[in-house]
UniProtKB/TrEMBL annotation:
Regions annotated as coiled coil: none
Reactions performed catalytically: a phosphate monoester + H2O = an alcohol + phosphate
Source organism of the structure: Ilex paraguariensis
Record's protein name: Purple acid phosphatase
MF GO annotations: acid phosphatase activity
Length: 429
């Protein structure tokens, strides 16, 4: 037990830089989800799905004992006319040995259709999911810095009621911070939702889990457990990738891997933006973890924010990206369309949505007076919904956990930059 606490302290001190910490109000109770007594070592657990290409889905799950990496599926309950095989991996982290991590890509699948599926053995329980629509409208649920607390539970319950098509998560998933059993708990915690709708994620600082000398590799657990479709977008890393869905091009960037001009991620982003066809995907949105714009006193001046913005803001502006969503700051904030610190009608709308739940509490102190580029800001737990109605218009709403689902705290209608003649996209530099 003593060794475990020493390792956790080292992880915090060396990776998360306690010198830059700030005062937070008390957080809600942390939760831990144990393996159900109804399950045995061959039962699938931590089931979640993610989109692969336009008509495929990756099904991921863990078993404690070896089982086939097979998914049987179909459009009727308990009737599986199709099946696919995948791969099984595992990993070590200090003294921890993971279970059997299974990944199976299934498809081609029909859009906007409910599929029923079974993972591994024929005795396993049945799950189901709905594929995203092929065309507009599409609704994204967006929430960062989830963790696994009572506030997280409230956030997920609100999201589950929202009839969303896909969840986008801009980093900081489990808050395991090296304690691998918390990764297992998180997988079980989110399974009811993550097994029914695709969850597309990128990494945050709490996914790094590097301990100097003791564990030299970053993102070991994250990469093993949450495999995203990076190869399909020409990326060489699970830490940054892109995909198309229902007329929207989504780009997931890595705040905690190299992003300077000339880096692999920078070159990939240049190439990816050049490939975007706005007649096919008129909307382009980007997710990062560390926000480029932030009027909260928390996380000011960090390299992952300031440096990445300096390196990549011109690329996003030139490509006329519509939205940039970030986490990291445990509060909500929406900026006007912005570029180079100033309002710009052809710049993206930056939104900080790091208010999913976490175990550290809210970042409640803001810079006073409020900058003129900041439209709405509030330190409350919640989530956002982006409903893209058609090629030209979308509506963004932010919901506090304290509110009923029908009540939104911040709402704005936005027009796609691709439909604005004054904002003709330039080439990615």
């Amino acid at each position: 037990m003593a060794v475990r606490w020493v390792l956790l302290v080292l992880t915090y001190a060396m990776v998360f830089d306690l010198a830059n910490s700030y005062d937070r109000p008390p957080a809600s109770k942390s939760l831990f989800v144990s393996l159900s007594r109804d399950l045995d070592s061959t039962s699938p657990q931590q089931v979640h799905i993610s989109l692969v290409g336009k008509d495929k889905m990756r099904v991921s799950w863990i078993t404690e004992s070896p089982t086939p990496a097979t998914v049987k599926y179909g459009t009727s309950p308990r009737s599986y006319e199709l099946s696919a095989n995948g791969s099984t991996t595992s990993y070590h982290y200090l003294l921890y040995q993971s279970g059997e991590i299974h990944d199976v890509v299934i498809g081609p699948l029909k859009p906007n259709t409910v599929y029923y599926y079974r993972c591994g053995l024929d005795s396993s329980p049945e799950f189901n999911f709905k594929t995203p629509p092929a065309q507009f409208p599409i609704r994204f649920a967006i929430s960062g810095d989830l963790g696994q607390t009572e506030w997280t539970s409230s956030t997920i319950q609100h999201i589950a009621k929202s009839n969303y098509d896909m969840l986008l998560l801009p980093g900081d998933l489990s808050y395991a911070n090296g304690d691998q059993k918390l990764w297992d708990s998180f997988g079980r915690f989110v399974q009811p939702q993550a097994s029914q709708r695709p969850w597309m994620v990128t990494q945050g600082n709490h996914e790094i889990e590097k301990i100097p000398i003791i564990h030299r590799h970053k993102f070991t657990s994250y990469n093993a457990r949450w495999r995203m479709p990076f190869e399909e977008s020409g990326s060489d890393s699970n830490l940054y990738y892109s995909f198309d869905v229902s007329g929207v091009h989504v780009i997931m960037l890595g705040s905690y891997t190299d992003f300077e001009p000339g880096s692999a991620q920078y070159r990939w982003l240049q190439t990816d933006l050049r490939k975007v066809n706005r007649s096919v995907t008129p909307w382009v949105i980007v997710l990062i973890h560390a926000p480029w714009y932030n009027s909260n006193t928390a996380h000011q001046g960090e390299r992952e924010s300031v440096g990445m913005k300096a390196a990549m803001e011109d690329l996003l502006y030139g490509a006329r990206v519509d939205f940039v969503f970030a986490g990291h700051v445990h509060a909500y904030e929406r900026f006007t369309r912005i570029y180079k610190e100033k309002p710009n009608n052809c710049g993206p709308v930056h939104i900080t949505i790091g208010d999913g739940g976490n175990r550290e509490g809210l970042a409640s102190e803001y810079i006073d007076p409020k900058p003129n580029v900041s439209v709405f800001r509030e330190a409350s737990f919640g989530h956002g919904q982006l409903e893209v109605l058609n090629a030209t218009h979308a509506i963004w709403t932010w919901h506090r956990n304290d509110d009923n689902e029908a009540t939104s705290s911040d709402t704005v209608w936005l027009r796609s930059l691709a439909s604005d003649p004054a904002c003709k996209a330039g080439p990615a530099q």
